[in-house]
Records
---
Amino acid sequence: MIAIAAPVSAASTQGPVLRDIHLPPEPSWWPPAPGWWVLAACILVGVSLAAWGWRRYRRTRRRRQRVLQELEQVAAQYRHDGDPAALAGGIQQLLRRVARQHVPLAGRQRGEAWRQTLARIPLDAAALDVLVALDRHIYQPGAFDHTAALDAARQWLRQALRDRNWKRRRRAVADPALESNHA
């Protein structure tokens, strides 16, 4: 028997019939890639730190204004009644209250210990002497330069109410009685 050859089709000479290329679906926007999560966390931390810093700045600024306003009230009271002992006492009270935030025993210091606490704020020697002499003017009434005292107190308080202006001491012994206990 003789085999009859079938005609060769055009499709078989070109190879198999292929379908069109299909691309994968577009990636979903959710969930974001890990890099976006890290970026979002960094932004959140940055915004939180900025808000914390702003709150702290505002709080210290209000505190500074409140203390300086209180000094002005003491000065106004002096202009009203002319009592130098009350002026010296009011200024001294403000100075000690601010100093106590950095030197806990500042409220009990006298003499050289108080001078050293005041000197931790950069201030010229004349203003420092005026502030140290206030302690004497509370208990020994007499005339003193109230303008110089108020100016020195303003200058010291403006500097002292900024924490970065406090000079650090390696070992601060605020009370000589504590030093004798450690010996």
---
Amino acid sequence: MKTQFPIRKIIHIDMDAFYASVEQLDDPDLRNKPVAVGGSSERGVVSAASYEARKFGVKSAMSSVIAKRNCPELIFVKPRFERYKEVSSQIREIFLEYTDLVEPLSLDEAYLDVTENKKGIPSASMIAKEIREKIKEKTGLNASAGISINKFIAKVASDINKPNGQKTVNPEEVEAFLEQLQIRKFYGVGKVTAEKMYLLGIFKGIQLKEKSEEFLTENFGKSGRYYYNVVRGIHTSEVKTDRIRKSLGAERTFNENIASEIFMMERLENIAEEIERRLKKSKVAGKTVTLKIKYSDFTLQTRSKTLPYYIGSKAVILDTAKELLFQEKMKNSVRLLGITLSNLNTGKKETHVKEKEIAVQLKFDF
């Protein structure tokens, strides 16, 4: 059998409840208890939740008030990002024992291309199992893994047998796997998109596959072509070891809602100062300033302006943010302000993927 796209051996490693698991590892009193990493105040937000907490419906990005209501026994701990980075570095060292083609997505997950690996192990599934065992031995933490022919399927697969499990989707299984996959499980399909697909009669991959590219593009814009391809197992993105930063920003949630624009400007000055510091550290500049406003009723608004030149100084960032702030009247009091600088001068690297016909044995060793 022949296919129209390259077949690779890709592993997606995803640490299980990483931040919360590190906290439980370091503090034995937290083990087997519902733990949330984040602020416990009225305006706090859950950054991560242990599996014990998730059983009560506690999840990341949830208001701490709602989380506590769902789980009265919930224990809040403050995040320790330096500690998480330390553990993440130990995990990455394990990845590099097998391949240099490692693409970190965050501190707790990464793609690995093991089509050719340093240890000459033919089975990607065996490599994933070894890596998970080494992570457990070295850090005491559990990891899950997805293994398949491309990044998209590997990421989807890593969620199948969580926690502390792995799922391999062999080349000959890809078609059936994607056809039976619930549409909300497709990476890149969020809650709003899933609901729209339901209205169009798309509940699983098999219904998505029945739709033409024209139909999907008409209903979902540029993402339509992406959905058309991935449901057919086509995803040519390579594992990139040098991910290019696309934006840089900072935001602040306030202890009390702010109604005065004078106070808002004071907060924006602090945020702009923080962004300037990060820009200098990263040695980048940008052209597009985006102001993020979250009102007291939790509605979110963004306003953007693109300048004709790159900026990196606090003064220019602040002036642009102020202009955006006064662009229209505030709808309500404000609980959060944020500034993001994008369109960065990090350089655009183009990857040209030539889709050539490659003969593939269906018993490709996974």
---
Amino acid sequence: MAGSRKRGARNSWLEVLKVSLKLGLTSFGGPAAHLGYFHGEYVRKRQWMDERSYADLVALCQFLPGPASSQVGIGIGTVRAGLVGGIAAWIGFTMPSVVALALFAMLLQSFDLAGEGWIHGLKIVAVAIVAHAIAGMGQKLTPDRSRISIAVAASVVTLLVPNAAGQIIVLLLAAVCGWIWFRRQAEADVPVLDVPVSRRTAIVCLVLFFGLLAALPLLRGWISSHWLAVFDSYYRSGSLVFGGGHVVLPFLEKETVAAGWVSKEAFLAGYGATQAVPGPLFTFASYLGAIDGGWIGAAVATFAIFLPAYLLVTGTLPFWNVIRTSPALQGVLAGVNAAVVGLLLAALYDPLWTSAIGSTADFAWAAVLYTMLAYWKVPPWIVVVTGALGGMGLAVLL
């Protein structure tokens, strides 16, 4: 019996690794698009998590600093297969872009990929992916006038105040509105997820997160070690950035260019390369680490910048069900979930729409890709390949 349980656990985390690796190889378009890919694969196709639980997990990760889409993936992997499942989900989703960007750093720095047609095609794919995610999540999370209003207001504020502070303000105001308007509409049958992580383990993770955040700068001042300084810089970048994605860029530029580890020209070249690979934008740190110290530098930078995300998700998940079943906090989550739809709507416009849709042909191709995804139910990876080929065609014809 014990051996059977061990085989089941092993098969479970291997399954998580397999699915997340597929997502890591095909999820182009940044954090907002990643949430759309996750929703399609984990919720709609495999039903590893129900719609409400997925939305609540997204809302939780929006509140946490770090790469939100990676944290959602870690959370789903942890719920599915425990601590090892969370690690497997992170490895599968992250490693393809880590390897690709490290290779870019060491072999392809002289190539300018920013203007390639297939890159433009992938941006158009991201527009279709995010639009599909908004349509699906909007039906569930904004079913009435009040929540639609929260979503639209969140979108407006996010677009007018395009920084991490604006996003935090949006989520806090949405939480207050949710508590005022929806706390008396608490659901009695909120789906309860079995999170296979003990509260003791969760507390250890939270203590470790805050302990490293406080101790690393002190150790860096006492011990003259380049790799300790690298670990500290990337760990703080992963710990203090809300909103993830592009928000981390100024932090990384300050930590690496100002320190002389990476030239400004190499920094900008790497940012262009990052747009060409799937997976989380935080793997830009892998490129910077490789510029500074080869494969070892890439490994140290990657581990350091993603470690806070894993510690925070693992530290909060065991308390999740208590939060979700409280009537007052259910109201808060209702407001925050509506705001998340608004944040995705804002992301659909900026940076996705503004960088991808520059002509009527771009819009027409985005409409075709959306139809393939939403109505013909074409697998996302085929949509990605089709979008890239279409971008190459548009570059030739126009």
